[in-house]
Amino acid sequence: GENVEQHPSTLSVQEGDSAVIKCTYSDSASNYFPWYKQELGKRPQLIIDIRSNVGEKKDQRIAVTLNKTAKHFSLHITETQPEDSAVYFCAASIGVHSGAGSYQLTFGKGTKLSVIP
Amino acid sequence: DTGVSQNPRHKITKRGQNVTFRCDPISEHNRLYWYRQTLGQGPEFLTYFQNEAQLEKSRLLSDRFSAERPKGSFSTLEIQRTEQGDSAMYLCASSLIQARNTEAFFGQGTRLTVV
């Protein structure tokens, strides 16, 4: 089955600096890679996602890059703010385009991001 | 609130008791997923439904666990003869599989504590 590794497990940055979180996946059939933000005691919420036919996607201060050959993808947050402090999870899934197979998500173990004011 | 709703939010039970959780997905969503999350870990897939059909179960889902989605709307997850290792947050998510949109929306979860 799919295995997703996520690094680092904790990350502290000064407000205004950039934060980068990296994930690798094992199943070359995976073609959908979402990132979720989970604040303490709250539900995971999708912040950005990327599909295997795209190498990079950006949404304001958040960007995600995907390297299919190396089977890794990364989350980049620029101009970090204290409200960015949370646990971030990467995930991988197969079956987006084919309509077959499972859409289950395999998650990484999470990165606790602390933005220091 | 039109998001995914889970009840109860918290459940404390004695070891050996049975518990049942409920998930109400976003109304038009045809896929419903159950995940389990323990402290410091990412959510782990348990099972999912497309409409009323249970299409996949993780090997994490022992025979003490059963899930149903009888009318293709809400779902229940039952754990029989609970063990301390079942203590976790149980998350439900739903999605609408159409074209290229597969975003899964999560509920706030049910936190189970087995004492």
Written account of the structure:
- The complex is a heterodimer of chains A (117) and B (115).
- Chain A is mainly beta and 117 residues long.
- Chain A has strands spanning 4-7, 10-14, 19-25, 32-38, 45-51, 56-59, 62-67, 72-77, 86-92, 106-107, 111-116.
- In chain A, the strands form 2 sheets. In chain A, strands 2, 4, 5, 9, 10 and 11 form a 6-stranded mixed beta sheet that branches. A 5-stranded antiparallel beta sheet of chain A has the order 1-3-8-7-6, with no helix packed on it.
- In chain A, strand 4 and strand 5 form a beta hairpin.
- Chain A is globular and about 40 Å long.
- Helix content of chain B is 0%, strand content 49%.
- Chain B has strands at 5-7, 10-13, 19-24, 31-37, 44-50, 53-57, 65-68, 75-79, 88-95, 105-106, 110-114.
- In chain B, the strands form 2 sheets. In chain B, strands 2, 4, 5, 6, 9, 10 and 11 form a 7-stranded mixed beta sheet that branches. In chain B, strands 1-3-8-7 form a 4-stranded antiparallel beta sheet, with no helix packed on it.
- The model of chain B has no long low-confidence stretch (mean pLDDT 92).
Low-confidence stretches of chain B: none
Poorly predicted tracts of residues of chain A: 97-101
The number of helical runs of chain A is 0
- The total of beta strands of chain A comes to 11
Oligomer: heterodimer
| CA distance, first residue to last residue of chain B | 32 Å
Radius of gyration of chain A: 14 Å
Overall mean pLDDT of chain B: 92
The SSE order of chain A reads: EEEEEEEEEEE
Helix content of chain A: under 10%
Largest interface: A-B, 27 and 26 residues
